[in-house]
Design brief:
DUF2759, elongated, 88% helix, single chain, mainly alpha, transmembrane helix, membrane, transmembrane, 59 residues, DUF2759 family protein
């Protein structure tokens, strides 16, 4: 149960980072865009990996 909560929190952070990427594209702030994109990729990877681990696709 704890891992599902972790995956949901990670997905929420990923969604916020994606929103930040879109906003930074609009403002043309490349430094913040880079950090937002790295955050979205990292948290997205870990959230998907956690979900796949919980449903049994990944050991």
């Amino acid at each position: 149960m704890q891992h599902i909560v972790l995956a949901i929190v990670l997905l929420f952070v990923t969604l916020l980072a994606v929103v930040s990427v879109i906003r930074q594209l609009k403002y043309k702030n490349l430094f913040a865009l880079a950090f937002s994109a790295i955050t979205a990729l990292a948290f997205g990877f870990f959230s998907i990996a956690t979900i796949l681990s919980e449903i049994g696709i990944i050991n």
